[in-house]
Amino acid sequence: MRRALVFLALAAACCATRGWTFCDAPGECVCRYHERAEEDLMRQHIDCSYGRGAHAANRTLPPRAHSLDLSSSGLKIIRSGPFLRSKSLQELGLKNNDITYIEPDGLALPDLRRLDLSYNRLERLDAAVFRSITKLEFLNLANNNFVSFAKLTFHPLRELREVILNNNNIGPALRDTDLFDRDGFGLTNKIQKVSIGGIGLGRVHSNFFVDAYDIRELVITNNELRELFEIPFTLEYLDVSDNPIREISGEDFTDLTALKVLKMNNLGIGSVPAYALEPLRALVRLDLERNLNLSEFSALAFGQEVLEDADDFTLEELSLKSSRLQTLDRRLQVPLGRLSRLDLQGNRWHCDCRLAWIKQFQMKANDYEHLRCYTPKSLFNSKIFELKEKYFRCPRERGGGGVGSGMAVGLIAFCMFSSAAALWLFWYLPGCPPRGRALPTAAYSALPLHAPTATIAPTAL
């Protein structure tokens, strides 16, 4: 009897405790255990996204909670209390809310590794907020209202590996400083991935990344950069798309021997000049899409060596779609022929004999569906891969003579001019009597052909 009473008391206590957890919010949260990896079988994943009342009853987290998603749940302020306290939680999603403030002890999560606060209304974060989540490795603060390092400091986050700051107007605050300045934002030099797209950055000064010893990925898109900057040599991934950059050269990529992915979409460049990409010996993927001024891609863009021997050519994917290219030099056939994916769609291709060689490439159907002729007018919008070879003609083939005819005409004209000059000299040069004219009779005495013989009288002796 006594044992039964003790059992009932423990059961009641457990039920009372369970009644306050997120997993007991009917219709608000979905709780499940990870089923893929054996080490995750006891880790609980809690999804309360779009649950407007999940946090209203001051619920707590289960003891084995591993991840919690409170996205789009109407949160405005994260207050101190049992709401977000856990020794086991490692991932927290708070995106798409209206959060304007987080109290210093609002995130009592000492083992937290990933935090998503994107798409909120935060203007500042107290340094004390980060002191309670010092093991954080990933932080997403995109699309908030931060403007300066005075209201945002990363000093306590010594284990941070990736930070996303897109679409916060912190660009003006970075004119004379950088994200790693100990007196400024204080981002740890252990950082490996940084995304600062759309922050109003107009210039990257020469020492901007001098303290970023191990940075591997950099996204610096949709800013106001007019030229490339001193790129960290440790980078493996670089995206500078959607900037008004007007030219590139090999000097911009010197010593980037580790770079594998380069994206330069929607820039202001007009050409990819000779040797511009030669230093990128480890490049695997190159995107040059939507460059509306790009009309020239040099045959020597990757250097001279790869045109003859592409055994060391590492590029696997190249996209030049939606630009203004009209032709490609046939000399690129060797390196481009080694690609696993090539996208040339959406350009203004001039379909003549100089472009017919691209039909030899092995492309996937979705990579040549919109690969079409722009000129000549007779072939406008024709699918290049469906056109027969005979339609890729050059002017000399249509004109029935071309350059040879022009040379012949020039030679005939030269001969006629030379003949006319010779006749003029022959007829009118001074000192030469003109032929065909009668000689003057007064100048000479002509004897008759049968003149009578004169009889000379003998002289008398």
UniProtKB/TrEMBL annotation:
Query: What's the name of the protein?
Result: Leucine-rich repeat-containing protein 70-like isoform X1
Residues of the LRRCT domain: 347-395
Gene Ontology CC terms? cell periphery
Q: Which SMART domains match?
A: LRR_TYP, LRRCT
According to the record, the signal peptide region is: 1-19
Tagged with keyword Transmembrane: yes
Q: Where are the transmembrane segments?
A: 403-429
> InterPro entries, per this entry?
Cys-rich_flank_reg_C, Leu-rich_rpt, Leu-rich_rpt_typical-subtyp, LRR_dom_sf, SLRP
Which SUPFAM superfamilies does this entry report, sorted A to Z?
L domain-like
Q: Which domain of life is it from?
A: Eukaryota
Cite the Pfam families for this sequence.
LRR_8
What keywords does the record list, in alphabetical order? Leucine-rich repeat, Membrane, Repeat, Signal, Transmembrane, Transmembrane helix
